[in-house]
Design goal:
By secondary structure, the protein is an alpha+beta fold. It contains three helices and four strands.
Length: 105
C-alpha cells in the first residue's frame, strides 16, 4: 500500500501594475494527471491557500488542482493602491490562468 502524500508545489507569478511589481503565490498538484481539466480553488478571506491543503491532497491523485493566495493574503504580495473601477485582484485573475497555460478542450 502506497501511503506517500501527493506532492504539492509552491509557485509565484510576477506581475506589474502601473509600475508596481508584485507576486501572486499559488499551490499546484503538479504531479497529478495533466490531461484532466484543472480545478481552481479559492480560499475564504482572510485565510490563504494553506487552508486548501487538505482538499489539494484529496484531489491530487486524480485531478490537477491549483489554490492561489489572493493578493494580500498568504504568500501573495498586497495589491497596489486601489484607484477605483474594477477591483485590481479580479483584473489579474486572467494572468494566473494564462501563466498556467490552460487550454479549452
Amino acid at each position: 500500500m502506497n501511503t506517500a502524500q501527493p506532492i504539492i508545489r509552491k509557485h509565484y507569478i510576477n506581475l506589474s501594475t502601473g509600475g508596481h511589481e508584485w507576486q501572486i503565490h499559488y499551490r499546484d498538484t503538479s504531479g497529478s494527471p495533466q490531461n484532466t481539466r484543472p480545478i481552481i480553488l479559492l480560499h475564504p478571506s482572510p485565510l490563504s491557500s494553506a487552508f486548501m491543503e487538505p482538499l489539494l491532497q484529496l484531489l491530487a491523485p486524480s485531478t490537477r488542482a491549483i489554490a492561489w493566495d489572493t493578493p494580500g493574503y498568504g504568500l501573495s504580495d498586497s495589491l497596489p493602491a486601489y484607484q477605483g473601477g474594477s477591483p485590481i485582484m479580479w483584473m489579474h485573475s486572467p494572468n494566473l490562468l494564462m501563466h498556467l497555460s490552460f487550454n479549452s478542450r
